[in-house]
Amino acid sequence: MKRISVDMDGVIANVYSQFIQMHAAEFGEVLPSAAIEGKPEKVAFLNAMKYVTSPGFFLDAPVIENSQAVMQKLNEHYELFVVSAAMEFPASLPEKKSWLVTHFPFITWQQIVFCGSKEIIKADIMIDDHFKNLDIFSGETLLFTQPHNILASAGRHTRVNSWNEIEQLLLS
Amino acid sequence: MKRISVDMDGVIANVYSQFIQMHAAEFGEVLPSAAIEGKPEKVAFLNAMKYVTSPGFFLDAPVIENSQAVMQKLNEHYELFVVSAAMEFPASLPEKKSWLVTHFPFITWQQIVFCGSKEIIKADIMIDDHFKNLDIFSGETLLFTQPHNILASAGRHTRVNSWNEIEQLLLS
């Protein structure tokens, strides 16, 4: 059974929605796509670091469309792990665990990894929205489209724009 | 550079000291070695689960002798990761991170992993006190002696009784 490492932020947890909402609450403007595309989150959102360290930022993040249904199917055909490079923000760890219990109850605690660098992860397939994680992974790599990576060439990675595309690739 | 995965509880963090102290506080008796040797922590300590979920259990754990000095040297010659199967107890996660920052300040957040199962860990050497982690690891395995494993044969693993022995093995 092949093992998949699935990222949280930007792959199953919609952190952009949180950034946009908190930016709008602080500055009174909803940033248009053009203002955030191709930019790292820290650049696109002036106070990004303040937002990610706010209580509730991770706990209240919406679920990315169709991720629950497709993850539930993947869980039957693969060794599924949720792997989040969350160690930079230790206060987020219980929030992220709690979020997973709420939205992905079929993922057991044995299937969750919070790390700093993903170079220590041993899996066959990695789904992530960040090149820094995919580039150091030797297996099959799926780049999940998010505003920060949307303008870049996927290079050796396979770009996926939705969980429906992941379902097509890994379950058909 | 070879990568080492070092366990926390029972390898660098002295959780037995915490168990023994909390048991003594609750029942008025310091358990003798004979009462805990060869038994899983959950069996040796009647209320073990209550203790590990108490605030401060992980935060206040003493450091295992010589682990700091030897870890600091290992950090110069190996890719060092601290890997703790901590996901069962999410409230412990910030405590464990904070404990590491306090006692092992040379370990960066990029070098820390909190997981459920260690089967996803890719490294060359694993130091752990639990057979369940070492048995599924394909690299070099060091079994750190603790009361629960002291009566067992180390099997294919190399038993180490102290951080001085680890220093001899990995740094001489």
Q: Give the SSE string of chain A.
A: EHHHHHEHEEHEEH
* Anisotropy-based shape of chain A: globular
CATH superfamily of the largest domain in chain A: HAD superfamily/HAD-like
**Helix/strand/pairing class of chain A, anyone?**
alpha/beta
Provide the CATH architecture of the largest domain in chain A.
Answer: 3-Layer(aba) Sandwich
- In the CATH hierarchy, what is the class of the largest domain in chain A? Alpha Beta
Our Rg estimate of chain A from Cα atoms comes to: 16 Å
Task: Quote the beta fraction of chain A.
Answer: 15-25%
Main beta sheet of chain A, described? 6 strands, parallel
The N- and C-terminal alpha carbons of chain A lie at a distance of 16 Å
When the domains of chain A are counted, the total is 2
CATH topology of the largest domain in chain A: Rossmann fold
Mean pLDDT of chain A: 96
Task: Quickly describe the structure.
The structure is a homodimer of 172-residue chains. Chain A has helices at residues 15-27, 33-36, 41-44, 48-52, 67-77, 92-103, 131-134, 163-171, and strands at residues 3-6, 79-84, 112-115, 125-128, 140-144, 158-160. Chain A has 172 residues and is of the alpha/beta class.
